[in-house]
Amino acid sequence: MPESTKCLLDGVRLDVFLAETGETGLSRSQAARLIREGRVRVNGSGENKPSFLLKAGDDVLWEIPPVQETALVAQALPLEVVYQDACIAAVNKPCGMVVHPAAGNPDGTLVNALMYHLDHLSGIGGEMRPGIVHRLDKDTSGIMLVAKDDASHRSLSAQLQAHTIEKHYRAVVAGHMKEMEGRIDQPIARSKTDRKKMAVDPLGKPASTLWRVIEEGRDRTLLDVRILTGRTHQIRVHMASIGHPVLGDVIYAKAWAQKAPRLYLHSFSVSFDHPLSGERMTFTAPCPFLDSWR
Description:
Radius of gyration: 20 Å
Structural class: alpha+beta
Shape: globular
Number of helices: 6
Number of domains: 3
Order of helices and strands: EEHHEEEEEEHEHEEEEEEHHEE
CATH superfamily of the largest domain: Pseudouridine synthase
CATH class of the largest domain: Alpha Beta
Oligomer: single chain
Helix content: 10-25%
Largest sheet: 9 strands, mixed
CATH architecture of the largest domain: 2-Layer Sandwich
Low-confidence stretches: none
């Protein structure tokens, strides 16, 4: 069923309004896709430009399409399901597994594994991303949340937008830190010289990362890292920007720091409010390199 709400401010982009209203549970990219598909109306008229500027008092109506049958196949891939109930699941993604199908990775992904291990998934993420609320890079391991129905997906997405989901990582970075803890506030955007990379850019999207030293090794340091925003490659870009790239990072680290058995980045814990009960929940995944990083 279509839903609607009123805009209270002048000059707000339509895609931003839908993503930040808290009622849709959509990310900005998901909102933009709905707009381009003609599923959003402003004051009764169809609008297909995400950049359309709203005025105070405008009535915005949107409709999330019904779940479509997917052509994806379930695959019996190894996957640790840390927790699941009727609404959500928490899984421990292994290093080297791509989250969802894309060019070059048509199957063998986390989505294919989820379809085998779980009884159902939400459809808001789209046909190629059922159940996926947030992502991890291919070579990053660790805990991920999965939505099993659309209402739970909207709730978790809204929590991500409001920055009330708390995510902590374990990262081994090159060198020793000058302080025991710190914060990096540097906007991130697509690199202007290499479209496969991200970069610190004054015109990019705001990004904030907190880090804390857990232990020092000979020429490296184990950190607890908390991200307050969820930009692509955020931890890897931010740590490299201050001269302490993540070990094993073949994109952002210098040559010597690339020589590691894997990317030393692991999603250790996630805390959130359960979409149905409202209970604050925390799930963790043991760090697989904790005994070998030194």
